[in-house]
Description:
Number of strands: 19
Helix content: 25-40%
CATH class of the largest domain: Alpha Beta
Strand content: 15-25%
Number of domains: 5
Largest sheet: 6 strands, antiparallel
Shape: elongated
CATH superfamily of the largest domain: Reverse transcriptase/Diguanylate cyclase domain
Oligomer: single chain
Radius of gyration: 37 Å
Number of helices: 15
CATH topology of the largest domain: Alpha-Beta Plaits
Amino acid sequence: MRARSTRAAAASATLFPAIAKEAPGEHTALARVRARSPSVQPVAELWAALHLSHPGGTQLAHLARRAQRFTPRVSLERPDGLLLEVRGSLHLFGEVAGLREALLKMCGELRLEASLAFAPTPLAALVMARACKAAQVMERAELVGKLAELALGTLRWPPEIVERLKRTGVRTIGAALRLPRAGFARRFGTAQLASLDRLTGRTREIRTAFRPGESFRRRHELSCEVESHACLLSALMRLLEELEDFLKVRQCGVMTVECHLLHRQAGMTPCVLRLAAPGADARHLGSLFAEELQRLVLPQPVRALELRAATLLPLTPAAPMLWQPGEHGGGAGSEAHALIERLQARLGEAAVHGLTLLDDHRPESCWSMTAPPAACPAYLTRTARTTCMARTTRGATSPVSLRRPLWLLPVPQPLAMRAGWPWRRGLLQLVSEPERIETGWWDGEDIARDYYTALDIHGVRLWVFRERTAAHRWFLHGIFG
């Protein structure tokens, strides 16, 4: 048996020599196969570093928000540095040359002076950018040669350590890299040695990704006090464009936008815009704010504007409709939202309402006014959408709902009677079977009625009921369209 197994092992080694060599450890063999396979090698990183010459209070965060259109891996190096991992974005922006031009153009639009460098490690890119060297190092093998002549000050080590190194004749990064590692760590600290390892890529540096704030608030000081609505709208458009950039980065929209008009002596004048669906387009928001501003009466000239958007909602871009607006219902959803928003802006929020169904059989208590409808939008939860669809379906298929009018009187109107029959500009003709409603006993507002559909002498369809209690009076409760 032992001879047979030995011969089988020898045959396996002959047929599969690569696997036979790895037989002592299956995991070791798998690791070595993966190491030899180029498809599982990690993709080398390429970092772009921006060093600001004169950083301001919020300029770095604002620059980081704008830079997220190039890559999602954006990291801050306060107070004056910004890092972007751009290896996967090169083909989208014309390789390094195109990306360099786009990044510097972005800084120019924000009126920021910045130096830019590219390197395989984030710290190396930062060091070269601080040295104001427009360097472009694509491979790690070239990195040490490019860094060797740079001053130690670009690493931003503690001043006392840099001074001690200078007294020993070490003034550049290259000289520090040539020192023995054990002696360097013993004399100058392990933190500095770890910094050199991150600089050259000996150890990988994990950067914290920049996460923009989840609310928007911007203020714009006017050069002079303004009363003209057109001038106010022009200044407001700048803030709305910033809001659009802020929302597009996050793929979000807003339902409520607040504009505060600030005066020198009078209190703040609010101008609140509420949308029917999440939106992020600055031009659309500007057109709605133009309607809102026309209705405002300013107590004093405006000296500053402040725009706020506190709640952000996921924004799913609408797919193009197969049919044109007006053809087979094409574009009905977006047109409904735009109509609601335009009516609110022109007539005011008090003039536009939505309706919601309540769980009550009494006709006057089974509905209530709500905020303008959003037509079961996609950002509602699944439960809310199911409830909305169920109510819509139940209302459309129920035979009772087909006999009920949409126009109900605020209070049922008593009708005259002739020989026990309802009278309104003539004898009413009952054209339906009775619908009996007896409910409300638990809250003291109980009803007992028999409802009918009736026609008057002009053919108008009315919804009337007869009391089931003594007196048996007739009432008009609704009118069919």
